Automatic annotation (TrEMBL):
This is LAO/AO transport system kinase. It comes from Saccharothrix tamanrassetensis. Belongs to the SIMIBI class G3E GTPase family. ArgK/MeaB subfamily. InterPro entries: GTPase/Isobutyryl-CoA_mutase, GTPase_ArgK, P-loop_NTPase. It is an enzyme of class 2 (transferase). Pfam families: MeaB. GO terms for molecular function: GTP binding; GTPase activity; kinase activity. Its EC number is 2.7.-.-. Keywords: Chaperone, GTP-binding, Hydrolase, Kinase, Nucleotide-binding, Transferase.
Amino acid sequence: MGRTVDVVELVDRAREGQPRAVARLISLVEDAGPRLREVARALAPFTGHAQVVGLTGAPGVGKSTSTSALVTAYRERGERVGVLAVDPSSPFSGGALLGDRVRMGEHATDPGVFIRSMATRGHLGGLSWAVPQALRVLDAAGCDVVLVETVGVGQSEVEVVSLADTTVVLLAPGMGDGIQAAKAGILEIADVFVVNKADRDGADATARDLKHMISMGRRERTDVLWRPPVVKTVAAGGDGVADVVDAIDAHRAWLHDHGELDRRRARRAASEIEAIAVERLRSGFGGLRGGAGLEALAERVVAGELDPYAAADRLVEGLGA
Ligand SMILES: Nc1nc2c(ncn2[C@@H]2O[C@H](COP(=O)(O)OP(=O)(O)O)[C@@H](O)[C@H]2O)c(=O)[nH]1
Ligand SMILES: [Mg+2]
């Protein structure tokens, strides 16, 4: 094939579990280069197998430590595991983040584990398009479970929900913002709560507060049948990690029994399509020159010559031309 990669062959090799093929495919989708479409097409028939588990929470609660402990637990069951560590603020891309590399070090030579760190800064839409494509690569590579670690700040914790079959929200005692964050919306997104650092004072109180909030929430939302369990862990020592695996399994079974798995996956595909379409529109705007371009229109809005709605109409019309 000369210097150009044969994407179909790469996908074959990834399915055989060759780490370099997996890494290469993720790079191809991350770069959003001309091969992206070809990669997506080649992957499509082999996706839909992996169980996608999102882990989110404030920086320092122990997401990476927990992810590593979960990898160990799934490997003990003989499952192939993928890890995507997504840090929107990281200036690095492609390679592993140093901290994660150290923590994930014990899995680095395990052929049944694929680990990838992704920085989303600089990509319009952040998580919204590159991560789902990387997920597809790991899925097609035969991962039984893919763990997606995202920092629970701003939008990313909402976005992880659209990616994951099961969303695990981590809290830690002594991080006062924990319960506040819960009030601000993590209650809606969590399928499983983990109170990590249970070796520290206050873990019981945090777990109790959470359970109380969950029971309050249920009174208002009687249609919601799944009650998120609250699991205490000491991820650093592995305590309670088996309970997290059990909770994730139970949630998966519940999703399956209630037709929710298909619904969530359809929602995920819909947001993926939307993100790609929006991205395409955006890049189209960039190509519009002269008076029809975004900058020229913006100037006219600032000058009061056009209102933003009329300007938006022109922009969209410009794409159609
Ligand atoms: N005491 C204690 N420390 C922990 C525990 N789990 C993780 N840590 C420590 O907390 C710090 C942050 O962990 P990390 O996994 O990087 O958190 P992340 O930012 O959420 O990914 C590290 O120094 C870990 O060693 C735990 O269960 N107990
Ligand atoms: Mg981390």
